[in-house]
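G.,

No rush on this.
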Amino acid sequence: MAQNIGTLVTAAIRPNDSLDLIASAYANEIMGGLHRATASSDRNAIIAARREWGMLCYVINDNKTYQLTQYNSSVLTDNTNWVEFSGSGGGGSEWINSVLSVELTEPSSPGDGDRYLVGLEPTDTIIGTNWNPHGVAGFIAQWSSAINDWNYTTPLDGMSLRVDDQDNSIYRYEGDYPTGSWQKEKVSQVRHIDAISSGGASYSAISSPYLVDYETETLYIVKFDTTNIGGSVSLSINGLPHKTVRKTDGGSLTNIISNEITTNYQYLVTYNGIQFELLNPSTGGGGSGLSNKYFIDPTETITVPTNTQYWIYGDLGIDGTLDNYGQVVVVNGSLNVLSGSFNNAGTYSNLYFAEINGLGQYNYVPRWVTPYMLTATSSIYDDTYEVTISSPTFSVLNDIVLSKGAVDGYVLTSDSNGVATWQQGGNRYSATFSFTANATQSITHNLNTSAIIFDFWNEDTGYREYPDVVKTGLNTIDVMSTSTILNGRVVIMS
């Protein structure tokens, strides 16, 4: 081992006593270690004899610590080798300081300390006199006014940072530079907000953490404090511009109807880049997910959307709320509004079908030529061949058997004089079809009448579906489903 040169000591230099209030050495006067400088120019003035690779220097004016690395060259006095220290040796760390934004074009007039993530993928094209020749996209560039140039940081596998102009994301570098890439890791994707309005049209809400802009990847769970007045609804979050709110059922986007938004729900709301989309809980999100209940509990609110029917056989009791914008039909029963409310903005029908024991088949529904139903007091007479109705309407107090003159498939009809006879029943058409969402399907039934009864269900799931009947003719019917159904059963009766 070579003999050292200089003032040689054989023990550590220490104060005479541990209680002596003196320093044994000055950090700025030793080689390497941790130095302190007032400004970056003072740091750059550290003489070569006091420099050592890996040393640190804290700059008071910047409130930052820099490390001397071989970042730009192997020359110890090259001040471009000073890089901001982020917490581990070599200027690298799992977490590094945030950047202003992700950019591909070099700013023309950067400010001191301005920091950017230059591209996300190695295939990104970089534009700029200094950035372009530096290397493959993915590095971090920070402007230094002291050297009038950029300081660069090469990403390491697993390195993470935040982007200041993106409020709910973290970027993590995956792979080895220059072949790796920055991957976006979403945070705060679900936000719970309370929407407040004084007029029931324009709602405002506050969300934390703060929103920089509306994100299409964010789900908002919104509780409205008031019911909407009118069909024009908008929402602003954290003072950002108001955006129109429209409702979706998973297949279409439509305007919100007056009083459709209630305070009973937490609504799922997303942003599509232009406006907010509100998923009405009553729709189920995939078409009409309406569940028909003959009793509505006090805590329940059922909304019947437009172009939708809500059929109940027997009595319908309401202790909760039934909001109707479509059609509510009660068959052979009564609508009983108990402690709840029935808000009818659509149509309501109360129908009665005669239940007779005919042809050995219970609950057989006769089809009448005239609109008369078995609802009032009158009489009915069976003379073993035909039934004579003495008045337009009559009541049936007991089960009756009308067997003469009828065979399977016949129905009991009456003429304009009230004379009822058994006639051959109406024809029936049944087939399966494949329906494409929002596409009109034309069905030829050849029943030679536009007075038909139409029914439809999904053969694969067994659930009833409610497509829109667009057009009817004597032998055809045009139907459109809001969702794709590969195996739909169509039944048409004349």
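When you get to it, here's the other one too:
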Amino acid sequence: MPTARRRADAAKAVCGAVSDTLEALVVFTPSGKRGRFPIGTPLLQAARLLGVDIDSVCGGRGICGRCQILVAEGEFAKHGIRSRADSLTPLSEPEKRYARRQTLAEGRRLSCSAKVLRDVVVHPLARECAQKNDQGEDR
């Protein structure tokens, strides 16, 4: 079975049965790793299935903030897609709770809570967030 098909099947197992026609392309920068996933797939799950390194020490419960990503907005001719903030679900309750406790800069999302709605390009920020946290900044 081709790798892309296995990723889609694994994502369906996580997200529930979704029609094959309801998939979106998810591209992670700067690695360029990409794959098609069913609508509703959490970004953290997509990242793990593609081998993209995103931390989540809280187990994806929206508590630690280590899984932050930034949605790249605009036309990406190289990937043949237009990416924008509404390519993901609206801010979830765990993200809102996190934002009340810690800093969640504008445009940043928690990949454990943000789910794919359409083609999107995202940039993981875990290392940058961790470095700022270790220095006592950004929180």
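The two ends are 45 Å apart (CA to CA). The first helix runs from residue 3 to 15.

Enjoy the weekend,
O.
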